[in-house]
Amino acid sequence: MIRWLQNRFAIIVAVLVLLYLFLPVAYTFVFSFNNYRKSNIVWNPQGSPTLKHWQDPCGAPGVCDALVTSLQIGVIATVIATVLGTMLAFALVRHKFRGRAVSNVLVFVPMATPEIVLGASLLTIFVQGFSRVGLGLGFWTITIAHIMFCVSFVVVTVKARLQSLDPRIEEAAQDLYAGPGSTFWRVTFPLVLPGIVGAALLAFSLSFDDFIITNFVSGNETTFPKFVYVSYLRGIPAQANVIGFSMFVIALTLVILGQLIGNARRSSK
Amino acid sequence: MSALAHVGGTSGTTGAGPAGDAPPQERAGRRWLPYLLLLPGGLWLLVFFVVPLLQLFTVSIQSQFPGYPGYYYRDVNFSNYLRALTDFAPQFGRSLLFAALATFFAFALAYPLAYAMAFKAGRWRNIMLIAVIAPFFTSFILRTVAWRQILADDGPVASTLNALHLLPGGRITETAAAVVAGLTYNFLPFMVLPIYASLERADARVIEAGGDLYANGFTTFRTVTLPMSMPGVIAGTLLTFIPAAGDYVNAELLGSDGDKMVGNVIDSQFFRVLGGFPTAAALSFTLMALILAMVFVYIRRFGTEELL
Can you give the pTM of this predicted structure? Predict the structure, then answer.
């Protein structure tokens, strides 16, 4: 018995920690069925559980607009940050050049800077400089900020993948008379691709969930996290719970599906 | 997804992984290639990270126009810093203390999870990895509000502890403990991912060898597993400590007025205090300087040359 526990200790703790991670998500789910009166903080036994918030997920004013804004910013920021970050990662891992150490620091320091400092500093340039060129606080300033803080995370993720590649595979390709172009696109790139996909996924989740930086540079634009924060004082509508939980399920399903398809392909080869 | 392995950015020449070194001879015609790859991303970081920081610094030494709140003139005035450090010392202290506690608890929770994912999960590994990131999609504000409900006075945790007479103050929300719990929860994924990434790269056979050489479980862990995962542990503690020290949402939603952190002060100086910009900027810079100094000492103390 003790031996059994010892062998499974890590797994048991791991499952408990995962449950802990999911606990507030479950709470969010449960309270999406609450027939609350004024604010969705206390469970109202009368008329609960109700499906009315699920039947009308856009019923609270502004909630779906905020979601659409978050998704748009997430996609644009992810695409640009992934391209820029992947290029940086290749430069830093595969090339020796003057200024590489400085570039490494430039990539590292944004991650070592608290979000509130990033947000505050961006606000000072957006307020003082960019409004003059017609770029007021809003959708594009949020997008610019998200790209900035996602780039570093893309770089470290892709770098880790690049560094774990066996250089002999590429050498073999060159021995087989593949030119540098075809070696890259037919050998290196497919091998790095899982790292790039992982980086993009991470970038999207960071952008989608960001609040602190967004709050500084958003002006009147409202993203989903900002919508939730702003409506907290008046009471968060249960539609936010519906959307928050649905996004969690959609993200989980999509990634697991992608994983299963990937596994099936690999085993059919 | 083996993310965030070496946050410090390897200095490359120290043989990080088999492909860590650049090809020995770059063809002369392609010497411009790294700069071309570097240009767009580097420029973005320069314009939207370095320039804003410099701008923030000039704001932090501005003076107020006497009698005109919200108007400043440029001069060199470090009194904002003096004020930041004297008036808001308790908030600085709390930020660093809460963040350190949250980092410690997050480490204690994250390591077993990362360890199980790397060595025990088998084909469940990727599913568990996704499970660690998926809560991001619910929005951390919603999850923090959920914690407020879970820890509320009539909620399950507080009422159980009260029934057992284990809660001295009688409540959890509006206390420092709730803020630390919230910080621990919110930044846990940033601790799990890098530790997992470094454990995943570690060779399981080396750990088995420890067992074969009659080291018991704990000795193997202490002398073999933990040192091998050190880069991940360092990256994870930094990625937890830094955002936790700058956070204000947890203190706002879970704490009382007496639990406010530096982030709360910066936020309110920026958005609610007329003419608060220079003070807020000085506070931001002081926070960043404190954190960078601690990071530097920490990496010097524990880091290999692989970090920074």
Answer: 0.85
DSSP B65: E
How many domains does chain B fold into?
1
A96 contact partners, CB below 8 Å, separation of at least 6: B12, B22, B26, B34
The shortest C-alpha distance from A177 to chain B (Å) reads: 17
The answer to whether A36 faces chain B, any CB pair under 8 Å, is no
Q: Give the distance from residue B242's alpha carbon to the nearest chain A alpha carbon, in angstroms.
A: 6
CA distances from A82 to A78, A104, A156, A175 (A): 6, 17, 11, 31
CA-derived radius of gyration, chain B: 23
Q: Which of B9, B48, B291 sits opposite A144 (nearest CB)?
A: B48
Decide if B28 is inside a domain. Answer: no
Alpha-carbon span A66 to A142, nearest angstrom: 13
The reply to whether A166 touches chain B by the CB within 8 Å rule is: yes
Q: Given an 8 Å threshold on Cβ–Cβ distance, is B131 in contact with A151?
A: no
Which CATH number do you get for residue A74? 1.10.3720.10
Residue of chain B whose alpha carbon sits nearest to that of A226 = B141
CB interface of A with B, residues 199-218, below 8 Å = 199, 201-202, 205-206, 208-209, 211-212, 216
CATH of residue B158: 1.10.3720.10
Q: What is the ipTM of this complex?
A: 0.86
- Chain B CB contacts of A109 under 8 Å are 49, 292
Residues 6+ apart with CB under 8 A from B197: A160, B2, B3, B4, B5, B232
Q: Is residue A116 part of a domain?
A: yes
* Residue B126 domain boundaries: 34-302
Give A70-115 pLDDT, tens digit per residue.
999 999 999 999 999 999 999 888 888 888 888 888 888 898 889 9
